[in-house]
Design a protein that fits this description.
By secondary structure, the chain is an alpha/beta fold. It is 49% helix and 18% strand. 48% of the residues are buried.
Length: 344
C-alpha cells in the first residue's frame, strides 16, 4: 500500500532542496557577473601593463572575468567609447579621460597611474633644425585631435618657445597612424604624436625635436580609470584591477626583454585588426606596425612607467584643458580621483 503522506513529504522536501539549490546557483552566477569587466585600451605602448597582464593570465588569476579586451586607435576614440558605455575600465591617456568626464559627463574615477610623459614632436631633420623653424609657414605640421595628450604637449611647446599663434592654422588633425604615414610620405614635415609612433618615426630616420619631458615636467601621461558603476558594484574587483596593473608595470622593469616581446606581439596583432582597410589595400599596413626596437625605445626611453599619481599634476592638467578651451571650465581634481587602492 502506497503511503501518500510519505510521498507528499518527499515531494515537498525535493522542491525545497531544489529551491535552495536554485538560489545558491543564482547567487554564484550573480557573484560571477559582478566580476565581469569590459576593458578598453589605447593602441599604444601606454597600455603596456595591460597587455602584459593579459598575456600572463593575471586578470584571471586575480578572479576577474574579463569579458572584453578592446583596442582603440587613440585616446579620443576610447573616450567616445566610454561615453557610449562600452567599457567598465580603461587604460587611457589622461586628457581624453578628463574630456570624457567633463564634456561627455561619463561618471568615472582615476584609480591608478600608468606612466609619465609619452608624447613627442618629430620632424624631418633635413628641413627643421630647431623649434623656431616651426614658425616657417612653408612647413606642414600634424597633431592628434584637440584635447588629446599630444595636443596638450603641442600647446605647451607653443607657449614655452613663444611660437607664432598662427601655427594653429597650419595644423592638420589626424590619428597617430595617419600622422606617421603622412610624415613618411612627405606630406608632413613635423608631427606631434603619442608613443609608440615617435619611436617608430625615429626608427625611420626622423628626429625627435621636442618631448613632453622638455615642456611639461612630471606630466601625467596615462591612467587607469573605472566607471563609477563598477566601483559601486564591486570595489574589490577594482582593487584587484589596480593590483594586476601594478604587477604589469613592475614587470616592465624586472623583465625588460620579455616585456618588449609581449607588448610588440600584442600591438602587432591588434594593429592588423584596427587599421583602416585602405591602408592594407595600399600595402602600407607594415609601415604602422611596431618593431621590438621601437617598443623598447618607447618603454624605456620615452615613458616613466609608474602607478603613482600626483593629484597636483592632475589638477594642472584639468586647469590647462580649461585654459585651452578643451573643456568648458575647470573642476577640483578630487572629483575624478579615487586612489584608495594604489598603495595596498
Amino acid at each position: 500500500m502506497i503511503d501518500t503522506k510519505s510521498i507528499n513529504f518527499f515531494r515537498k522536501t525535493n522542491v525545497f532542496i531544489f529551491m535552495i539549490a536554485l538560489l545558491f546557483t543564482q547567487n554564484i552566477l550573480k557573484a560571477n557577473d559582478s566580476t565581469k569587466i569590459n576593458i578598453a585600451v589605447e593602441f599604444v605602448t601606454h597600455a603596456a601593463s595591460a597587455h602584459i597582464a593579459k598575456s600572463k593570465g593575471w586578470y584571471k588569476e586575480a578572479g576577474l572575468n574579463v569579458k572584453a579586451f578592446d583596442s582603440y586607435v587613440n585616446g579620443m576614440a576610447l573616450g567616445a567609447a566610454l561615453s557610449r558605455g562600452e567599457a567598465d575600465a580603461a587604460y587611457i591617456c589622461l586628457s581624453p579621460a578628463i574630456n570624457a568626464y567633463a564634456n561627455a559627463r561619463v561618471p568615472l574615477k582615476i584609480v591608478s597611474g600608468l606612466h609619465l610623459y609619452g608624447y613627442s614632436l618629430v620632424v624631418n631633420p633635413d628641413k627643421i633644425k630647431k623649434v623656431e623653424d616651426l614658425n616657417n609657414a612653408n612647413f606642414n605640421i600634424g597633431v592628434v585631435r584637440e584635447g588629446s595628450g599630444a595636443d596638450g604637449m603641442f600647446n605647451m611647446m607653443v607657449e614655452k618657445y613663444n611660437l607664432d599663434r598662427s601655427i594653429y592654422k597650419r595644423v592638420k588633425r589626424m590619428s597617430p597612424a595617419h600622422l606617421l604615414l603622412a610624415l613618411k610620405n612627405g606630406q608632413l614635415d613635423a608631427a606631434a604624436m603619442p608613443e609608440q609612433y615617435p619611436s617608430m618615426a625615429q626608427e625611420a630616420g626622423f628626429k625627435e625635436l621636442v618631448s613632453a619631458k622638455d615642456v611639461w615636467p612630471e606630466m601625467e601621461g596615462s591612467v587607469l580609470i573605472v566607471t563609477q558603476e563598477l566601483l559601486d558594484r564591486n570595489p574589490q574587483a577594482v582593487k584587484k584591477l589596480v593590483q594586476v596593473t601594478k604587477k604589469g608595470i613592475n614587470f616592465i622593469y624586472s623583465n625588460p626583454k620579455e616585456a618588449v616581446t609581449i607588448v610588440n606581439k600584442h600591438l602587432n596583432i591588434e594593429g592588423q585588426k584596427l587599421y583602416p582597410g585602405h591602408l592594407k589595400k595600399k600595402g602600407k599596413i607594415e609601415e604602422v606596425l611596431t618593431t621590438e626596437n621601437s617598443v623598447r625605445n618607447s618603454l624605456y626611453n620615452k615613458l616613466v612607467n609608474t602607478h603613482e599619481i600626483d593629484p597636483e599634476m592632475i589638477q594642472e592638467a584639468i586647469d590647462n584643458l580649461a585654459r585651452w578651451g578643451n573643456i568648458k571650465k575647470s573642476f577640483p581634481a578630487n572629483e575624478i580621483l579615487d586612489l584608495r587602492f594604489i598603495n595596498e
